[in-house]
Known about the structure:
The structure holds two protein chains of two kinds.
Chain A: H1 5-12, E1 25-31, E2 36-45, E3 48-57, H2 60-73, H3 78-83, H4 86-92, H5 101-121, H6 128-148, H7 150-162
Helix pairs in contact in A: 1-2, 2-5, 4-5, 5-6, 6-7
Chain B: E1 3-4, H1 15-21, H2 37-57, E2 64-67, H3 70-84, E3 91-95, H4 100-111, E4 115-119, H5 129-135, E5 140-144, H6 158-167, E6 171-175, E7 194-198, E8 209-213, H7 238-250, H8 253-273, E9 277-279, E10 290-295, H9 300-309, E11 312-313, H10 329-333, H11 338-342, E12 344-348, H12 355-375
Parallel strand pairs in B: 1-11, 3-4, 3-5, 5-6, 6-7
Antiparallel strand pairs in B: 2-8, 7-8, 9-10, 10-12
Helix pairs in contact in B: 1-7, 2-7, 3-4, 8-12, 9-12
FE2/S2 (inorganic) cluster binds near residues 34, 58, 59, 62 and 106 of chain A.
Amino acid sequence: MMYSKNVMEHFMKPKNSGTIKNADGVGQAGNIVCGDVMFIFIKVKDDVIMDLKFKALGCVAAIATSSIVTELAKGKTIDQALEMSNQDIVEALGGLPPVKVHCSLLAIDALKEAIYDYLKKQDREIPAELERAHERISKEVQGIEGKFGNFVEKQREFLLDKK
Amino acid sequence: MKVYLDHGATTPVAKQVLDAMTPYFDKKFGNPASLHIWGTEAVDAVEKSRKLIAKRIGAKQNEVVFTSGGTESNNWALKGVAFANQNNGRHIITQKTEHDCVLKASKWLETQGFELSYLGVDNHGLVDPAELEATIREDTILVSIMQGNNEIGTVQPMRELGRICKEHGALFHSDACQSFTKEPLDLNKDKLDLITINAHKIYGPKGVGALVVKNGTKLTPLFHGGQQDPGRSGTINVSGIVGFGKSVEIADNKKNKLMKNLRNYLIDRIMDEVPNSFLNGHPEKRLINNANFSFKGLEGEALVLRLSARGIASSTGSACSSKKLEPSHVLMAIGRPAELAHGSLRLTVGWENKLAEIEYAIDMIKKEAKWLRDIGGCDDV
Ligand code: FES
């Protein structure tokens, strides 16, 4: 498996790893095939994402993409952040091995879920597309719980209690 | 510090092996098939190696046939026996934790009208002789069971399995690539008919191995051609074979002891000092250089690359590290839950490793496992 220099840098020294106390939104995404799980925490002010943190149990690509997604989304408005695609992520990382492209979706999904959570908490309207994404992503997370058992649940409890 | 702990993948070529090989590239470059003195010089060198290898495995000199390595030998054993003996039956038995080349050759044989049975293993990776006894039939022509597993190191009870094969008149093959010179194996005492061995796991060169074939065993050739080595066509890899012979000659109990001590130290400390760690494979019946752990709450590919950045070579059976995104078939066969297969790490020591290297590796594993668990939100899970 050959990773670009940029991927390795983000993997070895990820930006924004951790959790946010009293986050305005928390998103979780997972990959049913390999069982990786990712969380993104966001802090929002005046519709702008001021801060993001992530936790990722997963491969090199999963950690590196989490790092770059949190970097790229920082300072973006909610609408701008929702427009980010995994293509943007792959490009910013200087490419990913083909079998690892799916990992870049994971980080984008976790961010979408965090935004969904934020909008819900604010009692704001959820764009139809985000609603659809939410349904798909939460189904996937449930699938992982089916496969990986209470481990994922424990991880979530642990992380969410901590925040 | 650079620490190579992936000897199960391949070893360096030992200095003595390299020195023995060197003249056979330029000064003694002859083809053993030639009649002149360049040819006979090459024949002598090849036969010397053949003799050494035969002796180590309890075979006659003419029972050792050189090949390009483990994959060729395994493919040849399975397909060659299947096609040469199909009049006696079309049933073949192997088991679930075999190397991919045995499993894939088996799957291919299924498409050719052979019936395959795959024995299961227990939680330690051991085949149950009683299951073999219950599975073997009148029309079973071949049983193929590896001696030492390449991932988790479990060593099978060869003698018992061999006895059952003989009682039922089935040929018995073993892939001994990982165990050759590390575990005792004897063509006759273990009632074997075919054994796969190779050089690059024992400080010899890549691209050379052998299939040991007991005299009288019916075997269809894999390659058709000049029959340069009895039963096997292709120009003989003289320098490689010289290196193979030398690597067997220098493999001794002293080196085995060294590996075992380092490995035991490694297992003891990792199990003690890394929380939520599990040993994969059998606690005692395992290859002397193999350690395989599962760490809960982290992913193996990430661990391998974190360690690689610290100068340490290791490997993993995690799904994320495989092309098909599937966890190791061996870890699945021993019943490891998906979350444990996810965090597996194989470390295979060699006799050139120093205690200080192992200590460094242990420190780094502790550190990196902690780091990954923290970033994954699993340091408490
Ligand atoms: S998330 Fe498993 S391969 Fe990257």
